[in-house]
Specification:
Helix content is 39%, strand content 13%. By secondary structure, the chain is of the alpha+beta class. It starts with a strand and ends with a helix.
Length: 181
């Protein structure tokens, strides 16, 4: 492994994409100087004895979503962020394993679509729609091509759908269309 250095700080672990983390910093205080001695006391939902309060009896299941209808066995989300080389080398294995552990996997494209949708929604609310967006319209209904479908499907509740969610839905519909072609 090659490392490009600038002083005492490691900047770019090489080969890029295969090495996903690097850290070698010269700080005046190192965490190894500290000895934190903590103790977990008590238990919730199980008898507080060393026989009953063991890891296999711990329930980490959580429910997420606006209706708390998405159940996860573990409260983990795998973000698919980083360079394309990092994603190429690591994402597939993580994504394939996620359903077995009921873990959510998130990818860069959908995250960007939701963020852009939210940004457009904020611009529409403030009536400061940028020129490059205003050529499509100045309302959520004009800008997002799936608005008509969503308005028909949800009726009056359409107005309560966040613009980020509409952006994400629009993105996913484009992916689905591409897969059908």
């Amino acid at each position: 492994m090659k490392i490009r250095c600038a002083g005492a700080e490691v900047l770019y672990p090489q080969p890029y994409g295969l090495i996903t983390a690097g850290a070698e910093k010269d700080y005046p205080v190192d965490l190894s100087y500290f000895n934190i001695m903590g103790m977990a006391v008590g238990a919730h939902g199980v008898e507080a004895t060393s026989d009953a309060a063991v890891f296999s009896n711990v329930d980490l299941e959580v429910a997420i979503g606006s209706k708390k209808d998405i159940k996860l066995k573990l409260p983990f989300i795998i973000p698919g962020l980083g360079s394309t080389a990092v994603a190429k080398n690591n994402w597939e294995g993580l994504a394939l394993g996620a359903p077995y552990f009921k873990i959510i996997g998130m990818a860069r494209g959908p995250i960007a679509a939701a963020m852009i949708g939210k940004t457009i929604g904020n611009a529409v609310k403030s009536k400061e729609v940028p020129v490059y967006i205003s050529r499509f319209g100045r309302t959520i209904e004009d800008i997002f091509v799936t608005s008509t479908e969503l308005k028909h499907r949800f009726g009056a509740d359409f107005d309560s759908i966040p613009a980020g969610a509409i952006g994400l839905y629009t993105y996913m519909q484009r992916i689905a269309q591409g897969m059908r072609s």
